[in-house]
Design goal:
Blueprint (H helix, E strand, L loop, with lengths): L4 H21 L4 E5 L15 E9 L10 E5 L9 H12 L1 H9 L9 E4 L5 E8 L9 E5 L5 H13 L10 H18 L3 E4 L1 H20 L2 E3 L6 E3 L3 E3 L6 E3 H13 L22 H6 L2 H4 L2 H7 L6
Parallel strand pairs: 3-7
Antiparallel strand pairs: 1-2, 2-5, 3-4, 5-6, 8-9, 10-11
Helix pairs in contact: 4-5, 7-10
């Protein structure tokens, strides 16, 4: 569709109004950039001319019931034999005894690690607004995410596009697209029993979950159950398993005292009513006495299974 510069103006104004409204609604999760139309396109087919580009962050919210997602590590694909190794294996396949030995060497599959996460990285909704939007065209949309399969992203994108209304003067298509992406993502997450991920994605998701929890913890105040003083979250630690919170300046001396008095097996949550049992004495301490860990009591604290990692 050929548009003149004058034809652009109503659409430019409508796009500016929509973006202004979205900046207010999605503060902190919305970005956009204006692309100045090329005057040389005046009088030519300008239906594909992009005027605005941007993204809207769609947070991945886990279902209210569990609030967690099981994350499993996918098995790496076995390497294909090449070169001399390939020739050797070919010779072995020709010998019956070698074939039996090769079969006997096959062991049971090793269980792959798994964990649970409570926070997932967001999905990004990318949009491009042509000069003919909103009067004669729809926005161009796509979704991107590092931890969802390409096929899943394609299905979600198709669903979002299908929810858009026919081109009209109304400029609410991006908000409709955001709601569709948010709802479709929620439905997809609710359908998952577990998420299988490659080693790189697995580690990324574990790190994101840890950093998200730590950032949330750092923003809140807590009362140390030893000194009874109030501190910011970053000054303390919440012990996994019982969630009792202490400041490091109290916890490290407490553990140091136990180690120096020959009681490393009592390194545990110091809350008198905590149900988390103390762990068995470390082998290194049992072999070398308390002197084996006296030099670095913070190492004992970091290595203890009920402290944060």
């Amino acid at each position: 569709m050929a548009l003149t510069t004058m034809d652009w103006l109503p659409n430019l104004e409508a796009q500016a109004d929509e973006i202004l409204a979205l900046e207010a609604i999605f503060e902190g999760i919305f970005t956009s950039a204006r692309i100045e139309p090329d005057a040389s396109t005046s009088g030519h087919d300008s239906s594909a001319t992009i005027v605005h580009r941007g993204t809207i962050r769609v947070d991945a919210m886990l279902p209210d019931g569990s609030g967690t997602l099981t994350l499993t590590l996918t098995a790496p694909k076995p390497a294909q034999p090449v070169g001399d190794d390939f020739v050797l294996r070919a010779k072995q396949r020709k010998r019956g005894s070698a074939r039996k030995q090769l079969s006997a060497a096959v062991t049971a599959p090793v269980p792959l690690p798994s964990t649970t996460v409570e926070a997932l990285p967001p999905v990004l909704l990318h949009f491009a607004l042509p000069a003919t939007y909103p009067s004669h065209a729809l926005p161009t949309l796509s979704l991107s995410c590092a931890w969802l399969a390409e096929s899943t992203l394609a299905d979600l994108t198709s669903h979002v596009i299908s929810t858009l209304d026919a081109p009209a003067d109304a400029n609410v298509q991006l908000y409709v697209a955001y709601e569709a992406a948010r709802d479709a993502l929620a439905v997809h997450l609710a359908s998952l029993d577990a998420l299988a991920a490659s080693p790189a994605v697995y580690q990324m998701l574990v790190d994101h979950d840890r950093y998200t929890k730590q950032a949330e913890f750092d923003q809140h105040e807590f009362t140390c159950l030893i000194c009874l003083s109030t501190h910011r979250g970053r000054a303390g630690m919440s012990l996994p398993g019982c969630a009792h919170v202490f400041c490091r300046s109290c916890l490290v001396p407490f553990y140091t005292m136990l180690v120096k008095e020959g009681m490393p097996m009592n390194v545990r949550c110091p809350h008198p009513q905590c149900a988390v049992a103390p762990v068995a004495r470390p082998a290194a301490a049992a072999a070398g006495g308390s002197d084996a860990v006296d030099a670095d009591p913070e190492s004992a604290l970091a290595a203890h299974p009920i402290t944060d990692s």
